[in-house]
């Protein structure tokens, strides 16, 4: 696992276990394979939604020209600039 997958995994795996536990408790027995896969898909989508903006900011900071705002390494101004210039798709 690369260092860049750690934030994603820190969100995905605990959420996956939580979702499986909740679903198991509601139905009263162990989940089938497809139900566990659904929990994994939801957890993976949530992790991607949460961590992708941070990856975008990291990449922009790494590729920034010296002397620019992004080169300072502050994530919030970088994300603000992406939002202003590209909107949600950025």
From TrEMBL:
Solcar repeats lie at residues 31-90. Belongs to the mitochondrial carrier (TC 2.A.29) family. It comes from the Eukaryota. It comes from Knipowitschia caucasica (Caucasian dwarf goby). Its main location: membrane. This is Mitochondrial S-adenosylmethionine carrier protein. Coiled coil: none annotated. Mitochondrial S-adenosyl-L-methionine/S-adenosyl-L-homocysteine antiporter. Mediates the exchange of cytosolic S-adenosyl-L-methionine, the predominant methyl-group donor for macromolecule methylation processes, for mitochondrial S-adenosylhomocysteine(SAH), a by-product of methylation reactions. Keywords: Membrane, Repeat, Transmembrane, Transmembrane helix, Transport.
């Amino acid at each position: 696992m690369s260092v860049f997958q750690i934030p994603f995994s820190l969100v995905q795996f605990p959420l996956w276990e939580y979702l499986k536990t909740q679903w198991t408790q509601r139905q009263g027995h162990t989940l089938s394979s497809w139900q566990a896969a659904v929990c994994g898909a939801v957890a993976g989508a949530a992790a991607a939604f949460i961590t992708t903006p941070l990856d975008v900011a990291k990449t922009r900071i790494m590729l920034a020209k010296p002397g620019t705002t992004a080169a300072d390494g502050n994530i919030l101004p970088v994300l603000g600039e992406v939002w202003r210039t590209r909107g949600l798709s950025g």
